[in-house]
Amino acid sequence: MTADTRATVLIVDDDVDNLFVLTELLRPHYRVLAATSGPACLRMANGAPRPDLILLDVMMPGLDGYAVLARLRENPCTHDVPVVFLTALSDPSDEDRGLRLGANDYITKPLKPAIVLARVRTQLEAKQARDWMTDRNAALEAEVARRMAENDLTQRVTIRALAHLAETRDPETGNHILRTQGYVRRLALALRDNPRFAVTRSDRYVDLLTMSAPLHDIGKVAVPDHILLKPGKLTADEWVIMKTHAKRGSDAIEQAEHDVEAPLEFLAVAKEIAHWHHEKWDGSGYPDGLAGDAIPVSARLMAVADVFDALISTRPYKKPLSIAEAHDVIVDGRGRHFDPDVVDAFVACLDDFAAIADRSRDGE
């Protein structure tokens, strides 16, 4: 035996004769269910098989057709089931009332077989078209979501690949990237209630910020080895060259923007971070000497994250500081090197910074 794949029509009428006539008329074409009252209709509409169409008598004892229709439309499971009223009422106001409640059509009594069949077929074809569109839209939304996820993954892999390229010439480690990503994200979340940092209320912005953070020192690939890898203190001339990495990094990202010929959000944020994360709150930083709120939010957050991680990390030219010592250095730079509110957020979530540092220690 094969399953009955025909459309299901639920007929609701307290007149058994009407039920019999409609059942005999529709059964050759559809799977037919029958109910003699409003409550029975509601039970069957929520059962299996779910009706594709309901032919509903208006004048019934207890729950009349209007009340049943209202219940059907209130229930998410039956909200979209088309309903055609069966009625002996001829007043246009009655028809208007039913349509306002959500009825799809009216068939007046006495019933004419040809009209009943035509109206039923029309409603079922319309429902089939709506269902197809719903399924099609769901499939398209799923495909869009899949492609967006794939695009996001591609962007993340590209960023990490570029960051790892910079690592091959930089004494800093890949775990520095992981740690600074964690610090920046934590700061952004901690500043969401601060009106000066309203941009961080956007989950999308926080994701872009976190995703772009690894490119903050991409410009170091352009710094000569004898300067980048020098174990001792840089000379004044060497320091001038070292400082060019900020602009060189943003220039490289900007060139990538031109190459793709389309604006990409993560590249815009990455360019901000690369170019300005060495700016200082009092205007004494580089490369442009920006001060205060003229420094983009992304760069202000990265400034604290980058310096904190440098302080607690081993370098060829220095030993690491403890978390407490690094905390004191950051606090001492409040209002001079760093945005005061970002420092306050750092202090508030210092334990989280310590956890991130411990979780991504160098060599692990």
Give a written overview of the molecule.
The chain has 364 residues and is an alpha/beta fold. The chain folds into two domains: 8-139, Rossmann fold; 169-359, Hypothetical protein af1432 (Orthogonal Bundle), CATH 1.10.3210.10. The chain has 15 helices and five strands. The protein has helices at residues 16-26, 38-45, 65-74, 92-101, 113-167, 174-190, 203-212, 225-228, 236-242, 245-260, 265-276, 297-312, 323-332, 340-348, 350-359; strands at 8-12, 31-35, 53-57, 83-87, 105-108. Strands 2-1-3-4-5 form a five-stranded parallel β-sheet, with helices on both faces. Strand 4 (83-87), helix 4 (92-101) and strand 5 (105-108) form a beta-alpha-beta unit. Helix 6 packs antiparallel against helix 15 (350-359), helix 10 packs antiparallel against helix 11 and helix 12 (297-312) crosses helix 13 (323-332). The radius of gyration is 34 Å and the shape is elongated. 33% of the residues are buried.
